[in-house]
Amino acid sequence: MAGQPWLADTFAGVMLVTAAYCGARLVISWRQHRRTDRPVDALHVLMGLAMAGMLVPRLRVFWAGGWEVIFGAAAVWFAWLAVREHRHRAALGRFRPHHAQHVLASAALVYMFAAVGTAATAASGTGMSGMGGGARFPTLALVFAVALFGYVVWTADRLPAMAWVSALAHAPAVAAMPAVAVPVGGPGPAAAGPADGCPASADGCPAPADGCSASAGVGSAWSGPPLSPRLAACVEIAMGVTMGYALILML
From CA 183, how far away is CA 188, in angstroms rounded? Predict the structure, then answer.
């Protein structure tokens, strides 16, 4: 991928640090039984490794076709979760796109790896190296970039409103709230609080970037406050900026 080498190295380094951090989140949440969205953290580990290898070829750990399959499956999985989340929020009269952004990011990565593979095939016949534009369907790359940057701005705007972990730790009645299933036909008893046992935000709904998952089931072994809600949001911001940068290079 073309562009300023130092900038590509910087973004690749950020992605590796992000992947390592999300891997640590998985370990800490498992050992301490802290609330976090484990599928999202696992996805961010893969995204960090994939983006680092895309930006700096010597950091590749997997081939492009394999990443396409992985992120294609991730897009389908999170799309299903987004639909389920929409039905749940609709029952409560509210909706927040907690999983929709992961569908967007996964789809953008599928596009990027498909574009990189196409460019690499074309370059092999002309002696060109790297990739600095000329991707198929550049309008789609622009749409993905604008959507990702828009999500970054939206997430950054929400950062000041997110509760600190120390504040959540002193709210045992909320943090220990049990999960409640929501019937398909109506809100039922879940209208009294968050359905996944996550602490409520200012408007009574769980904040999507607080490490909670709308897909958490009944009987989850969570205890204590969620794991670093603001850092989880910063991971989303770093991922969105890096992907947007890579997509801009393809225009």
Answer: 7
Question: Which amino acid makes up residue 10?
Answer: T
C-alpha separations of 240 from 192, 197, 206 in Å: 34, 28, 22
> Cα(210)–Cα(200) distance, rounded to whole angstroms?
10
In 29-147 the beta strands, taken as DSSP E runs, fall at none
Sign of the alpha-carbon torsion through 86, 236, 106, 180: negative
What's the maximum distance between 2 C-alpha atoms anywhere in the chain? 65
Band (168; pLDDT cuts 50, 70, 90)? low
* Segment 105-149, tens digit of pLDDT: 999 999 999 987 665 555 444 333 345 555 678 889 999 999 999
- Residues 115/135, Cβ–Cβ less than 8 Å: yes
Residue 245's domain comprises 5-249
* Beta-bridge mates of residue 35: 226
Average pLDDT score over residue span 153-178: 64
CA distance to 43, 99, 112, 138, 141, per residue, from 247 (Å): 19, 21, 7, 9, 6
Number of domains composing the chain:
1
**C-alpha Rg value of the chain to the nearest Å:** 19
79/67 Cα distance (integer angstroms)? 18
Q: Check residue 37 and give its pLDDT.
A: 87
Residue 192: exposed, middle, or buried by beta-carbon count in 10 A (0-12, 13-18, 19+)?
A: exposed
Phi-psi region of 194 (alpha: psi -120 to 50; beta: other; left: phi over 0): beta
Q: At a CB cut-off of 8 Å and minimum separation 6, what does 230 contact?
A: 159, 162, 164
